[in-house]
Write a structure and sequence with these properties.
single chain, globular, Rossmann fold, two-stranded antiparallel ribbon, seven-stranded mixed beta sheet, disordered C terminus, 2 domains, 9 strands, DNA polymerase, domain 1
Length: 287
């Protein structure tokens, strides 16, 4: 029987669930100095942990997973910040009380047989991309549970993306409807247009419609840059953004070759072995 690995973009799941649990208290203004009162924080955290565990259980049952892993970002800035200081600038930080609760949530996940991998040098996105790619190369099926559009470039016959909150798969038709290109062209598209979510700039004056049209005509960013048939105004914009294009593409591209020191069998549901990989990331940091 073929394996089915479910990769949970853990903070994407947890932070969205936390926001839902926090909202009634914020709306009712049970706050002190723009922060939740201590007892209210404890109640929201308790509700969040319970809701996260329930969500994970539903995901595993719905996906009929044979293997699973919850992948967490480090609380320290990743390598992308070193390349570009404004990466994700202005994004709301995780509340400190929620960050302190993560080990307890990892404990709760482990009770369901799901280990946690916490990134220290790379983003969770890079680790998920590496795992998904390695599985796909062996013909095994992977489902990434996330609402993050950055994973859409990984779509393939064996790599699927599931939006738990809207109970839908984000498939190739979704990409076509939203971006008018193929999944494999997304990194090129965002290199041209920029990615406002992560504050990655694109080529000034080139929007999504123009970028998609160019990619549908030429196939790739590389072919676009080499072409001498592009309108002079667009060619000038591209020529004036050579360094920006190179930087943005590097920031947008997910790593797919991070060394891993564990095997698929280590991720089988029901095992609880404490693991480590070869890139200073570690498993099961729960207390």
């Amino acid at each position: 029987m073929a394996a089915h690995l479910v990769l949970i973009d853990a903070l994407n799941l947890i932070r969205r669930i936390y926001a839902v649990q926090e909202r009634p208290f914020v709306q009712n203004k049970i706050q002190l100095n723009n922060e939740l009162a201590k007892k209210t924080q404890e109640q929201v955290l308790f509700n969040t942990q319970k809701a996260c565990t329930k969500a994970l259980d539903k995901i595993l049952q719905h996906q009929q997973a044979s293997h699973a892993l919850a992948v967490f970002d480090s609380q320290q800035p990743c390598w992308r910040y070193k390349l570009y200081a404004d990466y994700k600038k202005g994004r709301k930080k995780m509340p400190s009380h929620l960050a302190d609760e993560l080990p307890a949530i990892q404990d709760a996940f482990l009770q369901l047989g799901v280990d946690s991998l916490v990134s220290e040098e790379d983003e969770a996105d890079d680790l998920i991309a590496t795992l998904a790619t390695k599985m796909a190369l062996h013909g095994q099926h992977v489902t990434i549970v996330s609402t993050d559009k950055g994973f859409l470039s990984l779509l393939s016959p064996t790599v699927h993306i599931y939006d738990y909150f809207n109970r839908r798969y984000l498939d190739q038709q979704h990409v076509k409807d939203k971006f008018d290109i193929k999944p494999a062209q997304l990194i090129d598209l965002w290199t041209l247009t920029g990615d406002s979510t992560n504050k990655i700039p694109g080529v000034a004056g080139i929007g999504q419609i123009t970028a998609a049209s160019l990619l549908n005509q030429y196939g790739s960013l590389s072919a676009i840059l080499k072409s001498n048939e592009i309108k002079p105004t667009i060619k000038e914009k591209l020529n004036n953004s050579t360094e920006q294009i190179a930087l943005s593409r590097k920031l947008l591209t997910l790593k797919k070759n991070i060394p891993l020191g564990f095997n698929l069998k280590d991720l089988r549901l029901g095992t609880s072995t404490k693991l480590t990989d070869n890139n200073n990331n570690h498993y099961n940091q729960a207390r």
